[in-house]
Amino acid sequence: MKQRREVAATVLVSMLGICISSSFLFSFSLLGNRGFIVSGLTSTLLAISALFGAPIAAGSLFLRGAMRSMLGLGLSYVSFFNGLPTLIGALAIHQPSMVLFLVVGGAGAFWLHPVGAAAYLYPFLWLIPLLALLGKSMFARMIIGSFSAHIVGSLLWLYLGLLHSPAAWTALIPCVLIERLGVAIVAWALYMLHRVFWQRLCGVRNQREPLYRAQ
Predict the structure, then answer these.
(1) pTM of whole model > 0.70?
(2) Cβ neighbours of residue 133 closer than 8 Å, sequence gap 6 or more
(3) What's the CATH number of domain 2-202, 3.30.70.20, 1.10.1760.20, 3.40.50.2300, 2.60.120.920?
């Protein structure tokens, strides 16, 4: 019973952590007035999914939304663009077959759009999560989650017409590469921090069997 309470406390702290870390938003302007938002939300959800599973990650996102509503902050389109793609990424790290579907289906959907067809080089970024499937480390899993979320987010931006210049999409390739790797690094760091800090503090061992035997 004591161990269960400790596990529950650890999960609760992890879920509340998302409400703090995802409040730090870093935006940078790309190509004039267009901007992309990078937040702690994606990294934290990926780490929680790896530690406790995708359902707990989804619950964390719901908790964050509820807290924002109670505080009168509301939910913006940024919250939607961060939340939905990241939930897909949180699930993808546990489902290798899903990654293949996302890459092939996402590239096909991108190229079917007139703007996407003109920016045909962009989906080649999504070969990275396929290569990451060959790895067995936790960092490889975070790469998979980060880029899987990016596939969904890119399709939303494309089909909603939020970025309608083929040249703009092509110019984003190096920026996206750095951004997605950064998200994966932060997610991996949060995962390792949890294992080192909370497990030693509470004396709790995570009993979940990961998709890979990560070191």
Answers:
(1) yes
(2) 96, 99, 140, 144
(3) 1.10.1760.20
